[in-house]
Each structure stands twice: as structure tokens, then as C-alpha cells.
Design brief:
Blueprint lengths: L5 H12 L2 H13 L1 H5 L2 H5 L7 E2 L14 H18 L8 H22 L8 H8 L8 H11 L11 H4 L2 H23 L4 H23 L6 E6 L5 E7 L1 H8 L7 E5 L10 E5 L13 E3 L2 H13 L4 E5 L5 E2 L4 E2 L6 H5 L7 H6 L7 E11 L2 E8 L11 E5 H7 E7 L5 H7 L4 E3 L9
Parallel strand pairs: 4-6, 5-14, 9-12
Antiparallel strand pairs: 1-10, 2-3, 4-13, 5-6, 7-10, 7-13, 8-9, 10-11, 11-12
Length: 441
């Protein structure tokens, strides 16, 4: 072990005090904060909010103090199709409705994993991982698809946002405590060779309790409702009594099964044109396992551009807090001058950052445009879910340099893949461990 030497510190201190640029940075940072002091204004000015391919400028929603970005961005993708096909303006779907059933299903999924690992000690890495966070707000594209195909969707009027969905910390803490308590009982029952009938009875009771908790916190999901609206031509429409699943099938004229989740991680450990899966990465018993098809960034950009050209936005997952200027709404590697200001360079290559957990998928948004120069993407238009006060009325600009370094997932229609890629996509996936950073749970 190497200790910090006091004599070395004297020299380091002296060198710091004798370097004018660091003293100037110190004065600015201590008064204004780090990022505000080292923002590269010329980089911001070089990215105007203009795009040669511009698909969507829909009203930006606000997930507030919750981790439901995947829910919001997925519903933004779906509502775009509803508005386009049915000529409805500024429609909103209910994130709380999807959130309710995500929480309910995650509880039951947790129970199943606890039963499956009941013979392991509490010190086991997997058991410890399960008990540390039994559930949380995060998710991914396939998780959303599973929920929608089972429960449907509803307009926001049928299940509006409330104080709990707007700030999920209290609910998550209480719900985790309940699930952890339930885990103790389930492990005891499983290790005492309780009958299947007994286990099913206990699980039914626990899930009923979970439904009650969620209904009190988020509202009761509707079984049927009537949706009335006027289209852009002011013509009146009504659905009559309809279930959430019937509403989805009636209003959404796309097959969610036609969309594939692409991944970009370079390196020998992650060969391109290879499907990957992640252990214990679902949110419901019986759901479809997540499948990530690893492609080059060139192919990821190409398929996204083709989908945008066909007038359809692109769901994507990224590490949004890396190199971004909030009020400017800019994501670019050059927005902060770390080297000149602090004398350091941050980051290594993309895969090393991922493996060392310096950077990982943390946020989902919607790509709704791109600016092309000489058939190459320069910057991308991003629809976020943090309300209209951040960025360009809620929209961000993503530089292509940032896209290549911090975007990990995109969802595109499989028709944009080559025949060879489609054949490879259907192969048995390479399974990544549950603790891999691609796991959204």
C-alpha cells in the first residue's frame, strides 16, 4: 500500500499555486460550480436547433421525480403513431397505468426468483442482489412491450398522474420493504417443502396485498372506459365502452413484435451481428426475454436514419448525464473543457467505460430527427421527458460524436436489417450475467 506523503503534497500544492490557469479555474468553479464554469460556448453555438430530417415536435411530457423514462419514451413512440393515423393533436397516454402493472408484475417476478434461489444462503451473490433492490422504476423496451401486450394502454384522462407517480421515492421504499418481508416467508416455505397449493395460496395473497398498495398510491386501473375526442378536422369520435387492450389494438396500427432492440458495444467480448440476453432481466413471469442484437455504430446509425426517413421516431437508451449542458439542451463530447480547465482527460474507450461502470444505459428518450451533411449524421433531435423547461422546450440536440460514445440501444423495425442480420438475430443469444450493466432491473 502506498501512503500519501506530506512532502509530496507540499510540492503538489506549490505547483498548483504557481499555475495561473488552474487558479483562474478555481476562482470560477468555486463561485459558479464546475460545469457552468468550463462550458464551451463555441461548441453550443455550433449546434443550432435545425434538422434536415424532422419527424416529430410533439408536446414534451414530464416524468418528474421518477425513473419512468422508458415508460414515457415508449408511450411517446406509440402516441406518435396514434396521432398520425387518427389525426389527433397533443394526445397523451397514461404512464401511471403502465407503471401500476409494471410494479405489480415486478413484485411477482421477484417472488419467483426468491423461490428459485431459496436453497442458497443469504450471502450468495444472486440472493444478495435480489434482496438489495427487489424492484425499482427502471425498465427497457421489451418490458414495455410485454406490459402493453398483456394490459393494453389508456388515455391519460383515465389514469392521470398523481403525487406518488410524480415522486416515486416513498412508494419504492415502502414497496421494497414489503417485498423483502415477503421474501423471508417465501424462503421459509420453500425450504420447509411447502406444497404447491400452499405456495400458490400465499403468492395470491401477497399479490393481492401488492395490488391494494399500488391502487392506494397510484389509483385503480380502469377495466373499461369510453374515449371521446375530436380530430384535427373537428370531427367527433367515440369508442363506446372499451377495454385497455381493445383500445391498444384499435388505435395502434403497428406490430410491436416487428421491432428489434439493437445494441452497440465494440470489442472481442461483444462480437457484432450477435444476439445477447441478460439473466433475470424481465419484469414479469411469462414475459419475453430481452434480446439485444449487437451491431456496429455505423449500422445503428444507418437503421435509425432509415426509420426517421420513413417518418417514424426511434426509441433509444443512453447515458444522458455524460457530457451534457442542461439548459442548452446539448449532448456533445466537447461541451466541457476538462483538459484545459482541470488538466485531466475523462473516459477511455466505450466498452471499457461500460465494463468499469463509468458509463452505462441510464435513460431512454426518443430520436425524432437528424441533420445530415454529405449523407452523414451531424446532430440528432431528441425528445426527452423532463418537461418543457429543459433544453429547447424539452428537446435536446445530440451531437453525432456523443451518439457514438454514449448511446447503447436503439429500437428499429426489423425490416431495416439485412437478411444476414435477421438470420443471426434469431440464433440462440449469448447470455450476459444478471449483474451486467445492460440489465434494466
Amino acid at each position: 500500500m502506498v501512503q500519501i506523503d506530506n512532502e509530496d503534497l507540499k510540492q503538489v500544492r506549490s505547483e498548483f499555486l504557481d499555475t495561473a490557469k488552474y487558479r483562474n479555474t478555481q476562482n470560477a468553479v468555486m463561485k459558479n460550480g464546475i460545469k457552468k464554469s468550463i462550458t464551451n460556448q463555441s461548441e453550443i453555438n455550433s449546434h443550432p436547433f435545425v434538422f434536415s430530417i424532422d419527424v416529430d415536435s410533439n408536446k414534451v411530457l414530464n416524468q418528474k421525480q421518477s425513473g419512468r423514462c422508458w415508460d414515457f419514451s415508449g408511450l411517446n413512440f406509440i402516441r406518435y403513431h396514434i396521432e398520425k393515423d387518427h389525426h389527433i393533436k397533443d394526445m397523451e397516454l397514461s404512464p401511471s397505468y403502465v407503471y401500476f402493472y409494471d410494479k405489480l408484475e415486478k413484485g411477482n417476478y421477484f417472488y419467483q426468483n426468491i423461490i428459485n434461489t431459496a436453497d442458497r444462503p443469504l450471502s450468495d451473490r444472486l440472493v444478495n442482489w435480489l434482496l438489495t433492490t427487489p424492484q425499482q422504476d427502471g425498465g427497457d423496451w421489451q418490458l414495455l412491450v410485454d406490459l402493453i401486450e398483456k394490459y393494453g394502454i389508456v388515455p391519460i384522462e383515465e389514469m392521470p398522474e398523481d403525487a406518488v407517480s410524480a415522486n416515486s421515492q416513498e412508494l419504492n421504499r415502502m414497496y421494497d420493504r414489503k417485498l423483502q418481508k415477503d421474501a423471508l416467508k417465501l424462503r421459509d416455505l420453500a425450504n420447509s417443502d411447502a406444497s404447491d397449493e400452499k405456495m400458490k395460496s400465499v403468492l395470491r395473497q401477497m399479490n393481492a396485498e401488492n395490488y391494494r398498495v399500488l391502487a392506494i398510491a397510484l389509483g385503480t386501473p380502469p377495466e373499461k372506459f369510453t374515449y371521446e375526442y375530436r380530430d384535427e378536422n373537428n370531427e367527433y369520435h367515440t369508442t363506446g365502452q372499451i377495454t385497455p387492450l381493445e383500445f391498444f389494438k384499435k388505435f395502434v396500427d403497428i406490430d410491436l413484435g416487428d421491432y428489434v432492440e439493437l445494441m452497440n458495444l465494440p470489442g472481442e467480448k461483444y462480437p457484432y451481428n450477435t444476439p445477447f440476453g441478460v439473466e433475470i432481466s424481465g419484469n414479469m413471469v411469462g414475459g419475453q426475454p430481452s434480446r439485444y442484437f449487437n451491431v456496429s455504430m455505423k449500422d445503428m446509425e444507418k437503421t435509425a436514419i432509415e426509420q426517421l426517413k420513413d417518418d417514424e421516431p426511434v426509441w433509444f437508451g443512453c447515458d444522458v448525464l455524460q457530457e451534457w449542458a442542461p439548459q442548452a439542451g446539448l449532448l456533445t463530447e466537447k461541451v466541457f473543457d476538462w483538459d484545459r480547465s482541470f488538466g485531466i482527460k475523462l473516459g477511455t474507450d466505450k466498452t471499457k467505460r461500460f465494463e468499469y461502470r463509468e458509463s452505462l444505459p441510464t435513460h431512454a428518450m426518443l430520436i425524432s430527427g437528424v441533420d445530415m451533411r454529405d449523407d452523414k449524421p451531424i446532430r440528432w433531435k431528441i425528445q426527452n421527458s423532463w418537461g418543457p423547461k429543459v433544453g429547447h422546450k424539452g428537446y435536446f440536440i445530440m451531437g453525432n460524436d456523443w451518439m457514438e460514445q454514449y448511446t447503447y440501444e436503439t429500437v428499429v423495425n426489423k425490416k431495416y436489417l439485412t437478411d444476414e442480420q435477421l438470420a443471426a438475430y434469431e440464433k440462440e443469444p449469448v447470455m450476459l450475467p444478471y449483474w451486467n450493466a445492460m440489465n434494466p432491473i
